[in-house]
Structures are given as C-alpha cells and as structure tokens.
Amino acid sequence: MALHLISNPSLVLSSLLIFSTSLSFLSHASDILPQDQPLRDGQMLVSAGGTFELGFFRPGKSVYRYVGIWHRNTSTQSVVWVANRENPVVDSSGSLTVNATGNLVLTDGKGNVVWSTVTSSTEASSNYSMHLSDLGNLALRAGDGTTTWESFDHPTDTFLPGMTIRLDVKKGIRTLFTSWKNPDDPSPGNYTLGLDPLGSAQIFIWEFGSKLLWRSGQYNGQGFTGIIYRPLNSYGFKLMNDIVRQGFMYYTYSTYNNSIQKFVLEPNGVEKCSMLIEDTGEWTTVWEQPVNECEMYNYCGINAKCSVTDTPKCSCLKGFEPKSIGEWGAGNWSGGCVRRTPLDCQNNLSGDGFTKLGSVKLPDLSNWLSLVNDGQECERSCLGNCSCAAYAYTNFGCFTWGHDLMDIYQLADGQYDMFIKLPASELGSKSKVWIPIVIVPIVVVFILATCSFLWWKYRKQIKDLLQNGGKKESLFSGNRSQIEAKIDFSGPSQYGEERDEGKGSELPLFTFGSIATATSNFSDSNKLGHGGFGHVYKGLLPGGEEIAVKRLSRSSGQGIEEFKNEVILIAKLQHRNLVRLIGCCIEGEEKILIYEYLPNKSLDAFLFDPTKQASLDWKMRFNIIEGIARGLLYLHRDSRLRIVHRDLKASNILLDEEMNPKISDFGMARIFGRDQNQVSTNRVVGTYGYMSPEYAMDGIFSMKSDVFSFGVLVLEIVSGKRNRGFYHTDLDLNLLRYAWRLWKEGKSLEFVDVSVGSSYDIPEVLRCIQIGLLCVQEQPRQRPIMSAVTMMLASENASLPEPSEPGFGTGRNTSDTELSHSYSANNVTVTMIEGR
Fold first, then answer.
1. Is the CATH number of domain 604-833 1.10.510.10?
2. For domain 472-596, which architecture applies?
3. 640 with 402: CB under 8 angstroms?
4. How many CB atoms lie within 10 A of CB 808?
5. pLDDT band for position 72 (50/70/90)?
6. pLDDT (tens digit, 9 = 90+) per residue, 117-160?
7. Other C-beta atoms lying within 10 Å of the C-beta of residue 223
8. With left for phi above 0 and alpha for psi between -120 and 50, is residue 689 left, alpha or beta?
9. Which of 21, 193, 768, 797 is the most exposed place for a label (fewest CB within 10 A)?
C-alpha cells in the first residue's frame, strides 16, 4: 500500500487535501455546511457575526437529542428553533447532512432518517449548501445562490427580527408559532399564535388549535390597542396589509439600537417579549400577555367589561344587565349581559345617544369605516345605523361594532375611548322621555285616520285589486324613489374581510333596453345556464365590464319573493367569497339581477365532469373549501345581518378567474334575529342531498342546517362524487355513510378522488374528511358552528372530536334536474325544490 501511494503522488496530495479540509471543518466553526459534509453531534455551525449557533442539544432534563438554533453568549441556553421537535434522536449518534437533491437530512446512528426538509429541488447537484445567518435563519441554497428552503418559513415558538407573521389567503400560507410542550420537551404544545384568519390584522393565541385564548387588539401603526408598553414601531415593527387587493398581510420587525430581542410563545400560552442584557448574558422581560383573567379572550362574556382593579372583576356595561342573574351572582360570567331597554331606533324613535367608556382595549369584531374623516362623522354614522351598538374614533380611523360587544378590557392607562349607544331612558335624558309618550299616540291616530280616508276614497280600486289576485309584481312598479321606499338597499357591513365595502351604497337600476343590448337581446349564444326561476346570460356593458344577467321567468309562481329576497340580501352583503350584485332591472313584468361575471361558472361544472376533474388539484380544492367556509362564517356571524342560506350546494358555488369560490343564489335565504337559534316553516325549499334531516323532515332550519350542507359539499369536493346519485351497491350506503364507514375502518384515503393523484397533503385531506363528517352529524347540536370549522381548517395541529354517524342523505336518484313535488310530513304538506 505504501509503495502504491509513493508511486502515485497526485493521489497522496488529493488525500491530504480532503483530510485537511475535514480537520479544518472539525476544528473551526463555520456558518456554512457544504453538501455531503455531515455535521455530527458535538460539532457546531456559528453565524458569521457570532450571534447564533446551530448544533445538537438536550433540553432541560430530557435524555433525547435535538438539532436546534440558539443565541450564543447567554447565561442560559436560549433555543429559538428546533428541527426534529417531534422526532428526537435517542443518543449522540445523529448527523445532519445536505444531500444531493438539496435537502437537509437528519439521521441517527443506524442511518434511519429522523427528519428532513422538503424543497422544490428535483435534480441532483453538487452545489447545494446550508447557511446560518446572524438573524438566526437557516437557509438551503443552490449553486446559483437561490434559497430553496429557510427555517424562518417553518418557525417553532420564537419570533425573531427579520421573520414575518404572514397571512396569505390566496396562496394558503399562514404562519403559526407553536409552543413547546414543556421546558424539557420541544414537541408541539397546546398553544398556537398567528394572524386572525378573517384578516382583521390582530394577532391571536389559540388553545388546542381552535379555542381563542387572547388577542392583541387592533394595530394602529405604532402598537396594538390591547398591549400597553413601549410603542412597537420603535422596534421597527411594521404591518404590510394588502388583504383586500392581493389577499395577504404580514408583520415584521427589526432590532432596536442593535439590541438582541425575541418574542416567545411559552408552554403555558403566554407570549413574552424579552431583551438580552449583553453585559450579563441575562434576558429581561419587556412585556408578556396574557397574565391576568381580564387579558383572557372575552372573560366576562358579551356586553361586559373586565377590570383587574374592580371587585368583582366583571361588570355589565351601562344600560345592560346579566343574562342570567343566578349564574352572574355565582361568579359565572361567561353568559355575559343583555340590554335592559331596546334602542329607540328599533321602535322607530329618535332618542338614542351615547355614553363614554374610557381607556379600554377596543372590542373584537369591529367594522373599519375608512372614508370617515372625524369623530363627529363617525358618531353620525353609528347613530344612523340601527345595527350599530358602539363606535370609537381613533388616530387610525373610525370603528363601529354590531349588537354584541366582545372582549372589553378596562385598562389602567389605555389611550382609547369608545362610545356605547343607549336609548334615551338609559341616558337619563328626561327631556326626551316624553317624546314616545306623546308623539306615538298622535302618530297612530293620524295613520288610522289616513287609512280610513284612503279606504273610503279608493275602495273600488282596492276591491278590483283583491278580485284580481293582488298581482305581486306591483311591488316593483313605479320610479326609482318608489322602489327604494319599498326595498332598503342601504346599511354598512358589520364585519368581513372586505372591510370598506357595503357601506350604504345605492344599488344601480338598469333599463331593460340596456340589458337587452348587453346580452344581444338575450341571445342563446350568450346563455350561461338556467335555474329554477329563469335563465342566466353573459353580457357586456358599454364600459367593457362583463356581467352575468339572471332573468326571472315570468311563469314562475315563486320568483317574485325570491327576487325581492335576493335584492334585499345581496345589496347589503359584501365579502370576497360572496357573489357581487352589480344592479337590477325592474320594468313591467321583467325582473332581472345583474351580477359580476365569473368565467369559470360553477363548482359542479368542474367537480362532477370527468373531463375537468383533474384540473382541480388538491391545493385548489382545499382553497375552495376554505373560501366557502369563510363566506358562510360571514353570513352566520360577521355580516350586518345573520343569514341562513338554505340552498348551499355545488351549483351555487361560482368560481372566479383564479378559481376562488363565491357563494351565490340567495333567493331562499332567511334573515335570523340576533336572539333566534332556529325557525320552523311549513314550506321546505332546498335541494335533495344537501338538506339536513331536521329541515327535510320537520321543516326546522337554523345555521346548523347550512353547516350540514357545507359538510356535504366538503365530502363531495374531496371525493369528486355527487351525494345526490352516489350509491354503493355492495354496502348499501350513500356518500355520507360511505365516507363515515371508511373513516371508522381507517381507510379514508380510499375516499379521495382518484383524479387528484397522489400529490396531496395526507393530514390535510384527512382533516377535511373529518370536518365534513362532523358537519353532517344527525343531531344539530353535535355539528360545529362555522367559526369552529374555519379554525379547524386553518390549524394543522388541532385535535378534532370523533364524528358520529351522519344524518340521512338521499342519493339513489341520479337525476339532478329541476322538479317540484309535495308530500306530507307531520300532517303538513310541504313543497320540495330539487337541485338546479
């Protein structure tokens, strides 16, 4: 062997170079790990400035080994990121390597892969490397310098300068920080932190993935309204908000005076901001929340405030009283408070005013009015809206709130005041109390006298009208002012992701001639489809805007009520996942609705067409599920009105040019009062396969009826099969029970549409199937509300309950044509409207 080496001097030189390179890496810490050069337990990467270190570590009293990044030069180890937090190495035999496909791979002593990254790299190369920056970011780079993966995109529990907390609803990206289980175990704990998925720019902490524990309050450009300490902008804290146009927002921050600082979500759910004292290497706490009961989300319930200096801590707002006197007296404040006296505007009186509540953390679920310029205009805006319960004018705009005020914290030195609307009797305005007492009887007498006179004068015309059946079309006859007197199009949106929309704008009225011109006189070549009450056409306005024109059939006996319903509702609702109403046309017997044109038509055109199913990959399907959930949440909770859709189905989900979903067809929708939970009806309308059992059989509908329909939609989207028409001949099962049986047998992946292929996120698919099954449970009380559904969809680590057997879903008849028939249930004859 020695003779061979001497006779090959080039081989000797090459061996010495390799050996010296290895010795150099082992003896001198570097910030770069070359490809195929293992980093073994005991070796370190150190950032160029010496701020951060990467290597193997053992947390607390644990016997396991983890790969992590921590601050150097601190008195105690301060780990900011962990690679294999769920899969530790059991001994000190682990090694970390950048492999030929550009992935970082952690293996144990037996060569088993313990953890690895997933990058977009597919081709083998010899130029990949790993870099540790002075910001604490670990980045994988290709030979051309392109970053293919970085730890800042996959945080654990620590928010560092240069990182972002991001919400991107279009790309489905949402940054979530997850606490350690305990100081000895870095595996994911019970708490997560991220941005409000509804786009309010607030930072939330959730417990168990769905229970809201704490919120930061609104961001004012300098800090959050619920956090009292040094303004965040002094730390370089910034918000980039383009949620309306581009669908994303994010927070980031830079260091203050080159100080070293961090935000950590602790294992107990507390978010702590700390700064390093470099002389001692000790961390000092700058701020932490929540640390008392009043900082916990909605601790005192609705319409109540919490103050740590009061005894008891919870008290009802002025003008409100406990919803349950017994529970409140026993110290159970979760039920909150209700108004003692209704607002005067609800009784068509004008005595409402405001009482000031100073130094508070502003309530949740606010509506930002961007066009309001001063406090007086903000007050007038709330006073003129009967659905507005309170307002606040701040240095960052006008905020209003709906009927229920949630999560109010009385701060010792807060800088924001809010004004709560109360009736005159609660304000002590005795000068106005006489108004209803004196004026109301006078008005009643005047109305009765006027009606008697009109009856006497027009008795013949009224008699003829009654004999001719009333002609419901007359509701829409007359000029614009007459129409607006009968249908109220005004009113601000209570809250939604489109914060500045729906604030009292007039709904344009089009002439029949202009619509006929736009649709080439309703040409068959422009026909997009047809529904139960008429045809839909594509049109082009003179300015070049494409529109969808819904022309109600004159022969439809039910179309008038549905038309009125749709105009009233959609004119008041504005949300990115609801179809936008542009205007309407009412001339003679013509009743026409003009919508935004959505080029991809409806979801069922893709989902149930074998030639188009493959174009819906899993990422697109999941985005559609999330979008429908956000739209439904807006209808149920966040809009100015509480809406039950009653006809949620695939054909009523329209898709825009980027395949984002929009809920359409509100002809069967119903408005719910704030204190209503369910309603009974003798006229059951909807579509077989999507109707909940209690609605189809007993005529009882509620928001949980929509949840059932949503669950059916989720299972249809995952499977690519229509519930109405699916029947498993071997097992005598419809689609819902087939999904449930596969779930119970642990075979849920067999339920996934084969056209999706294998490129899908398995945990995400299983989570969607489980959510779908939770939504179609037979008992309404077992189904989750939509706010819980959106949280479950957004959280990767949520622990979901086990679903019970689903309610029935008729599915044998494969026809999906429009038909109507009646049957009797509980001695009541009802009409069923089937799918369009």
1. yes
2. 2-Layer Sandwich (3.30)
3. yes
4. 15
5. very high
6. 988 665 666 689 999 999 999 999 988 888 999 999 999 999 99
7. 20
8. left
9. 21
**Contact residues for 463 (Cβ-Cβ < 8 A; gap 6+):** none
Could you check whether the bond before residue 312 is cis, i.e. omega within 30 degrees of 0? yes
Exposure of 769 in the CB half-sphere (CA atoms within 13 A)? 28
* Neighbour tally for 814: CB within 10 Å: 10
Which strands sit side by side in the sheet containing 238-242, from one edge to the other?
A: 173-174, 164-168, 248-252, 238-242
Cα atoms found within 13 Å of the Cα of residue 217, Cβ hemisphere only: 26
Cis peptide before 290 (omega within 30 of 0): yes
What ranges do the domains of the chain cover?
30-153, 158-291, 304-428, 439-467, 472-596, 604-833
Write the CA distances from 180 to 153, 263, 264, integer angstroms.
18, 14, 10
- Cα 146–chain centre separation: 33
Burial of 562 (0-12, 13-18, 19+ CB in 10 A): buried
What 3-state DSSP class applies to 128?
coil
CATH architecture of 30-153: Orthogonal Prism (2.90)
Cα 444 to chain centroid distance, Å, stands at 47
Distance, in Å, from the CA atom of 458 to the CA atom of 604, rounded to the nearest integer, reads 52
CB 45 within 8 A of CB 70: no
**Identity of the residue numbered 88:** P
- Is the pTM higher than 0.70? The answer reads no
537-559 pLDDT, tens digit per residue, is: 999 988 788 999 988 776 554 45
Q: Is 647 in the active site?
A: yes
Q: How far is it, in rounded angstroms, from Cα 288 to Cα 272?
A: 4
Given 407, 647, 706, 753, which residue is catalytic? 647
Q: What share of the chain is helix, strand, coil (3-state, %, to 5)?
A: 25, 30, 45
Q: What is the DSSP letter of 636?
A: I
Residues 6 or more apart in contact with residue 602 via CB below 8 angstroms: 529, 650, 651, 652, 653, 654, 655
What token pair was written down for 261? Answer: 């600082």
